[in-house]
């Protein structure tokens, strides 16, 4: 039986800033789309959730954070914030994939096991991931990559149906259309959420992926990222 964990999760990797607190089987969460306010919002969000649960940082098992890919600045803010909290409370960190978190969100919306995730990486590229639901977790089917949007077909099995989600589909709709029949639905106006990272963190914990704060590493997939507001946002 999996241990009932108490884990705080934060994410600032994309335009959405979010925090979530998992206490056993319950998750409470908060989020706001505010791409230039992450550094100001994320700590108050986390502290509010802890206060709601009547917990202190020292009572947690670990802190999970969005390790990327995403905005270069956002990934750094989230990593540094998580490290600061973990150092102060002597807690381990769990580095969570933004693409995997989006896959879990897509599954919650669709109940389709195969999830195809694309986040706009700017410079005519996407961050791309393919995941399959397995006993609550989401197993990567291919290594996460940054690539031209047209290359998304390289990570799919045309004999399976997929649910596609993420800002990459919106940003490069002209290059991706028409979508083939085996990509059955797509929710494009979604961002990764800490609540999904909190849920997924229990599997990362079980796999022994918790690390000391000093050893936590962001994942950029490329060295520099320019993050700009999407049209109409």
Walkthrough of the structure:
This protein has 233 residues and is α/β, with parallel strands linked by helices. It has 2 domains: 6-97 and 192-215, 2-Layer Sandwich (Nucleotidyltransferase, domain 5); 99-187, ATPase, nucleotide binding domain (Nucleotidyltransferase, domain 5, 2-Layer Sandwich), CATH 3.30.420. It is built from 6 helices and 11 strands. The strands form 2 sheets. Strands 6, 7, 8, 9, 10 and 11 form a 6-stranded mixed sheet that branches. Strands 3-2-1-4-5 form a 5-stranded mixed sheet, sandwiched between helices. α3 crosses α6 (194-206). It starts with 5 loop residues before the first strand and ends in a 27-residue tail after the last helix. 47% of the residues are buried. Residues 224-233 have low confidence and may be disordered. InterPro entries: ATPase_NBD, Gcp-like_dom, T6A_TsaB. Residues 33-129 form the Gcp-like domain. It comes from Neiella marina. This is tRNA threonylcarbamoyladenosine biosynthesis protein TsaB. One of its GO terms (cellular component) is cytosol.
